Amino acid sequence: MSTAIFACLALGITISAFAIKSGMLKAASIIFWLVLGFLLYNMTWPTGNTFYSYAAILACLAMTIVMVAASIMHYLTWSKERRTYAPTDEEQQASYANQVRKITKKKDSWS
């Protein structure tokens, strides 16, 4: 039962890390995937099926590698995603024009 809860936690944190685009959640999910792999490897599987434990540890290790790469790429490209310069005049005018368009949108066809 605790393995199932831990699997849901690992999947939930991974999905929310990509949805929120948070580097800390991506880094935290690395630990969750490693622990989940350990739990699935040591779980009692039906007799005669020896490949389940190896498949589980390989899948969790693959997700760990994916999350390590995602968190590294998040922090390497973090500064490029943020604005490091002041907006130009054209960008300010385009932003102002978009605000005016949103405010003056016609709700009815009364014109």
Instruction: Give me the count of strands.
Output: 0
What count of helical segments does DSSP give? 5
Strand content: under 5%
Task: Kindly name the structural category.
Answer: mainly alpha
How many discrete structural domains? 1
Report the helical percentage.
over 70%
SSE string = HHHHH
Radius of gyration: 23 Å
Mean pLDDT: 85
Low-confidence residue ranges? none
Apparent shape: elongated
Biggest sheet descriptor: none
Q: How far apart are the first and last residues' alpha carbons, in Å?
A: 64 Å
Molecular structure report:
With 111 residues, this protein is mostly helical. It has one domain (2-82). It has helices at 2-20, 23-41, 51-76, 78-81, 89-103. The longest helix is centred in the middle third of the chain and has 26 residues, at 51-76.
List keywords for this structure.
111 residues, 5 helices, mainly alpha, elongated
How would you briefly describe this protein structure?
This protein is mainly alpha-helical and 111 residues long.
Helix-strand blueprint:
Blueprint: H1 2-20, H2 23-41, H3 51-76, H4 78-81, H5 89-103
Helix pairs in contact: 1-2, 2-3
